[in-house]
Amino acid sequence: MNESGLEPRGRCVLVKPAELEIQKGIIQVLDSTVAEAHMLQMRVEVVEVGPHCWPDEPEPRAEVGDVVMVAKMSGSLVKGLDGKQYRAVNDRDIFIRVKGN
Asked: Which of 1, 11, 43, 69 fits a disulfide with 91 by CB distance 3.0 to 4.6 angstroms?
């Protein structure tokens, strides 16, 4: 279920990066560092698929809820209306669907 308030258009796929485990301590982690770590993550979960994704392929590469691998540094980071970080990637940047855990 997409609670982000963001609706992908065209060939965009909205994904959410895996949660980074950051423990509170003496050292403060900058928001920009967390954002960079999210862009480097390749394993993400599909939140919503745009209406024109994969028109020339026999079946979709991914569906909502799938965990997939995307190209490193692909797409753009966007903050949803729910305050969480999401990533908007091109449908061609998804190259593997992860089965199981």
From this structure: 11
Q: Cβ(86)–Cβ(18) under 8 Å? A: no
Residues in the chain: 101
Of 1-5, 24-28, 39-43, 93-97, the range with the lowest mean pLDDT is 24-28
Please say if the pLDDT value at position 101 is more than 80.
no
For tokens 């590469």, what's the residue? 61
Both structure tokens of 30: 């900058």
**Beta strands 76-79 and 43-49, pairing class:** unpaired
- Please give the domain boundaries of the chain with CATH numbers for all domains: 12-98 (2.30.33.40)
